[in-house]
Amino acid sequence: MTDNNDDKTFGGAKKTLTLKPSGVSQGTVRQDMGRGRTKAVVVETRKRRPMRPEDEKPVVPIVAAPAPVVRAPEPRPAPVQQQQPSRPAPQQQQPRQQDNRQDNNNRPRVGVVLNQLSAGEIDARRRALAEAQIRDAEDAKRRAAEEARRAAEEAERLKLEQAETARRAAEEAARTPAEREAEKAAVEAAQAAEAEAAAVAARKAEDQARAQAAQPATTATVTPPLGVRRKTEKEEEEARPNRGATAPVRGKVVRPEPAKAPARPKTEEERRKGKLTLTAALDDDGNPRGRSMAAMRRRQEKFRRSQMQETREKVMREVILPETITIQELSQRMSERAVDVIKFLMKEGQMMKPGDVIDADLAELIAGEFGHTVKRVSESDVEEGLFNSADDEGDMVSRPPVVTIMGHVDHGKTSLLDAIRKTSVVSGEAGGITQHIGAYQVEQNGHKITFIDTPGHAAFTAMRARGAQATDIAILVVAADDSVMPQTIESIAHAKAAGVPIIVAINKVDKHEADPQKVRNQLLQHDVFVETMGGEVLDVEVSAKTGLNLDKLLEAILLQAEILDLKANPHRSAEGTVVEAQLDRGRGSVATVLVQKGTLTPGQIIVAGDQWGRVRALVTDKGEHVKSAGPATPVEVLGLSGTPQAGDKFAVVENESRAREISEYRQRLTRDKAVARASGQRGSLEQMMMTLQNTGLKEFPLVIKGDVQGSIEAIAGALDKLGTDEVRARIVHSGAGGITESDISLAEASNAAIIGFNVRANVQARAAAERAGIEIRYYNIIYDLVDDVKAAMSGLLSPERRETFLGNAEILEVFNITKTGKVAGCRVIEGKVERGAGVRLVRDNVVIHEGKLKTLKRFKDEVSEVPMGQECGMAFENYEDIRAGDTIECFRVEHITRTL
User: Low complexity bias: where (predicted)?
Assistant: First the structure.
């Protein structure tokens, strides 16, 4: 050994190993390390050795000693045959002396190489070879277990298929002989497939047994003689089964290769072969995979239809069509291919895609062309079944009557109701007049009566109409000291339009100037015939102040209710009408509702107009909380998401999703109507300019906030009637509740005035109004509100121009005066002529000039006026084309302020 045997560097150049086997050449290349750095690397180029039969011999692990020692021959263990799928079985080993002689004769000895390897390198190679052999043994065991599991599954599948075949054979036994002959070929094919599968299972079991027998009994290492040739690492990696693609070569960088596309598509025969496995590779038959039972049944059914010349029956469906639908969704609902629908549209001359949206008419045409029936639906279908559901006659029970008190303002309607209820509602009304609609319930002789109190002001006509629609009996209150007034006539019209009976209550009979007979005579003019005058309408003379005949009035109401035989079903979902709605600061949105059908309880989900909510509490007119509200019962409902409009219908729904769906649909309709109304009022910019130029229409913008929805509705109706062709009120926003900062911002943006009816602005809103300089007007009586808005709108009217004739003067002579110009010598022939008044120069009955007088003199003095019959001198401002014989007409123009 030399001194540098273990030295891996020689001559300053780094080497990987001192061993240089044959067929290997070394070289040095420059490797780029990045960022301008390079490194010299020693590489080896190995020539590929041609494959020889002796190179395929199995590799025997080597146990190297620190020094080569020649040992005596040891008895060999029994030869073990290892299963190698890619090479023949190895030959049995010969004694070491014979192997040494053969190696000496066939190739050069390589014992010198073993002497040059260090002990660590020899030990590392031995451990690597031992581990590789252990892994190979474990892989063989794992593969054997996998093959056993697959064989068991295959056997189970064969049992299931045999059971299925037996069942189908039993079913087919009842069929006709002709069909049996047609099925015979398929059954024989199935039996052949089962036999083949059984043979495959037997071969797999045999291969499994052979693989288990081929496993090595021990993993003991055998030390080969020194003269045996060792395979290189490359040859070992190539000869190692199933590890060439997974285990990379030590010290070599493996670059992943991209997946290669198949050179040609698989044919039917290749597709039937299935996946290449070890069993399939060792199988000598190489038969392709058999067809599945489902494929065989499909093929058999297709063959039978072709023989019987049968066509597949088309399924006709009922297609539900909304207002708009895509072609793809339509084809899915029809169970047709979208391509077929597109082809049909192309034949009709329309080029469309599956994602295009079509209307219901075109969708109905397509569905009818394909033979399907159509059911049209729309967005309004969400409200189907919400109202007017049929009731069973057996569930109907008697209910209290609903009575509406109607009449002219200040005829004592609320006072009469207070006397009946023994309350004092009228004392809390501003100005002593009722401006809210109220619902109350009283009890007389064990019978309940529901009263609805309506205002009598002209602006509350909508409230009276709602009261008449929701009532059973209308009480017409007329003051005995007064006569039939306009709102009395209107109440009669509402009651007749609703088709409800009328009871006339002649109030204030306790006054000395009362004349009930005069009231009865005036009612005859409006087709109201009372009983005392031979008619059918009940009339009662009452006094709310003294309580006279109040019991007779209640008895008349109960008598009329008994005649009407009022009934309702309390065991169904509740329906009714919203009488009034308001926004309470502590309770939120509060709606006063009148239950007309069913029973309303807390916890139910209701939809009222475009609002919905879960009922949190039911409060009566006396402030008491109740657990339920039956038919003809007025209650306050808490828990709505917003404030509904007065007069809206409400109903109980089954869940929140439907309530939300109905509410969103109604809100969308409300927005669309508002947008349409605004667009109709505003129009385009060109239309606005044309309107201003032609008519001079002026608008008075307003933001109105009230305590209840009914008052806001009445105010809007009253202001709408004030409008003319020149000026009108435009309500920018209206709502129930106090005035907030958002109302101030809206009024500032639209330059509108803010009106609060029985409400006030909060601190933040007042501060914002002071900063923006916006005035907030507060009212509690509708008379004052309408009068002030009317006066403000009158200020927008242009003043009226009125012309007053003063007199005529005839020009006798024209004088040309230096520094003054032409002066006309005139005689006043009619009326008088005033200085500073307007004049017209008339020649041959044609107005030549219109202007003002510059001077008016009599003799040499300036005078203010000249009466008829006298002569004077007149000169025009900036005009001198005057002639003798012309007539001067004098007039005065006055501007008069207009009012609505």
Answer: 59-72, 79-97, 187-202, 210-225
For residue 763, count other CB atoms closer than 10 A to its CB.
Answer: 7
pLDDT bin (cut points 50, 70, 90) of residue 895 is confident
> DSSP character for 864?
S
Binding site feature residues: 407-414, 453-457, 507-510
E strand or H helix at 378, and its extent? none
Report which DSSP code applies to 881.
-
Residue 424 main-chain phi, psi, to 5 deg: -140, 70
- Tell me the β-bridge partners of 358: 325
Angle between helical axes of 327-334 and 338-347 (0-180°, round to 10): 120
Do the Cβ atoms of 502 and 476 come closer than 8 Å?
Answer: yes
Pairing of strands 402-407, 447-453: parallel
Phi, psi of 379 (to 5 degrees): -65, -30
What the block records as the tokens of 455 is 């205002």
DSSP structure string for 219-252: -------TTSPPPPHHHHHHHSTT-TTTSPPTT-
Q: Please check whether residue 563 is in contact with residue 592, taking contact to mean a CB–CB distance below 8 angstroms.
A: no
Cα torsion angle, 553, 558, 564, 570, sign = positive
| Residue located via tokens 């803010």 | 754
Q: Indicate if the alpha-carbon torsion angle 174, 178, 182, 187 is positive or negative.
A: positive
CB 244 within 8 A of CB 252: no
319 beta partners: 374
H-state helical runs in 422-476: 461-469
Q: Dig out the tokens for 672 from the structure.
A: 């669309």
Q: Is 349 helix (H, G, I), strand (E, B) or coil?
A: coil
Distance of CA 488 to the CA centre of its chain: 49
Q: In degrees rounded to 5, what are phi and psi of residue 621?
A: -70, -20
C-alpha span between 300 and 182 (Å, rounded): 9
Cβ(666)–Cβ(609) below 8 Å: yes
Query: What is the rounded distance in angstroms from the CA atom of residue 705 to the CA atom of residue 716?
Result: 11
Query: CA-CA distance, 350 to 582, in Å (whole number)?
Result: 55
Pick the closest to residue 432 from 706, 782, 786, 777 (CA basis): 782
Helices (H), 285-412: 293-308, 327-334, 338-347, 360-369
Pick from 792, 785, 797: which is nearest to 725 by CA?
797
- Report the pLDDT value the prediction gives residue 427, as an integer from 0 to 100: 58
Question: Which parts of 12-61 fold into alpha helices (H)?
Answer: none
pLDDT digits (tens, 9 = 90+) for 280-337: 666 555 555 667 888 888 888 888 877 776 666 677 888 988 878 899 999 999 989 9
pLDDT, tens digit, for every residue of 468-483?
777 888 899 999 888 8
- Range in 20-34, 53-67, 136-150, 574-588 with the lowest mean pLDDT: 53-67
And the tokens for 865? 């006026």
CA 882 to chain centre: 80
**CA gap 229, 276 in Å, rounded:** 36
Cα separation, 157 vs 139, in Å, equals: 27
Burial bucket for residue 836 (CB in 10 Å: 0-12, 13-18, 19+): exposed
* Greatest mean pLDDT range, 211-225, 274-288, 432-446, 868-882: 868-882
Cα 870 off chain centre by: 89
Range from 12-21, 126-135, 207-216 carrying the lowest mean pLDDT = 12-21
For the entire predicted model, the pTM comes to 0.50
DSSP 643-674: -PPTT-EEEEES-HHHHHHHHHHHHHHHHHHH
Number of other CB atoms surrounding residue 442 within 10 Å: 18
Whether 215 shows a pLDDT value over 60: the answer reads no
CA nearest to 890, candidates 861, 860, 864, 862: 864
Instruction: Calculate ∠ Cα 162-168-174, nearest 5°.
Output: 145
CB 637 within 8 A of CB 574: no
Which residues sit in the known binding site for GTP?
A: 407-414, 453-457, 507-510
Tell me: pLDDT of 83 over 70. no
